[in-house]
Design brief:
mainly beta, Immunoglobulin-like, 2 domains, 9-stranded antiparallel β-sheet, 5-stranded antiparallel β-sheet, 1 helix, about 5% helix
Length: about 250
């Protein structure tokens, strides 16, 4: 009986996927179970559904990628707030706790690798938050910049032209605002992580920086659509996690 109820639940969820814009390309869907829309500390519980097999995805169904089974990306529609987290599986559901203190509409992405065929997936959903600090202006209005800092650590991205659907190699230089040399060490299996999002928030690219020198790196990426993109560069400088926002245009 429990199996039949679970099967029915999965079928009903699958029937709703036709309403999602990404149904044809997604390998996995992310469906929330328990969460609060109130600003503050969020306890978010969700399921991952394998759309091909029509089954729920457990921790044993995933392979480790960049030191974690599952990567969890959160950002608001203004592309200002950003978090990169890692849920755990409690035997029934995936769970993650984090803080969202500002009102607004947020994108939530789960990214991982299916163990059965070693294919990567990205699954998204949305979350609206109320009762907190006033939301940032939306939609996003990105000011293009390939140089940025978090007041201490800085990033400069090469100014090479980027064309949609063509792989590009971008160079990154790490520095500090006070002129001292940064101390860059690996973060989650890479020199740095670059997460790029279209200005409507609807598409995400997550790539990893390879080290070329102690304070320089390179990354290969393909951007499917032209337009403006928000980039968040995450890296460790002196073992402190830094997040530097940039903005580029893809032609």
């Amino acid at each position: 009986m429990k199996f039949l109820k679970l099967l029915l639940w999965v079928i009903l969820l699958f029937a709703t996927f036709a309403l999602h814009a990404h149904e044809e390309t997604q390998k996995v869907a992310l469906e929330p179970e328990i969460f609060s829309n109130n600003a503050g500390h969020i306890s978010y519980q969700f399921q991952l559904i394998d759309l091909e097999k029509k089954t729920l995805i457990k921790d044993s169904d995933l392979s480790v990628g960049n030191e974690k089974l599952l990567h969890f990306i959160v950002y608001d529609s203004s592309l200002t707030d950003f978090q990169h987290l890692h849920p755990v599986y409690n035997g029934k559901s995936w769970v993650i706790e984090f803080d969202l203190n500002r009102n607004g509409d947020y994108w939530i992405w789960g990214q991982g690798i299916l163990a059965r065929n070693k294919t990567e997936f990205s699954a998204s959903n949305n979350l609206s938050i109320a009762g907190g600090i006033e939301s940032y202006p939306s939609p996003a209005e990105l000011e293009l910049t390939r140089t940025g800092n978090d007041s201490i650590s800085s990033i400069t991205l090469s100014d090479i032209q980027i064309t949609a659907k063509k792989m590009v190699m971008l160079d990154l230089k790490f520095s500090r605002t006070d002129g001292s040399a940064p101390v860059i060490t690996n973060y989650l299996g890479a020199m740095a992580h670059v997460i790029a999002v279209t200005d409507d928030g609807d598409s995400l690219v997550h790539v990893h920086v390879m080290s070329s020198k102690p304070t320089e790196g390179m990354v290969h990426a393909t951007f499917e659509n032209p337009g403006k993109y928000r980039l968040w560069v995450q890296f460790l400088d002196n073992n402190i996690l830094r997040v530097v926002p940039l903005a580029i245009e893809v032609l």
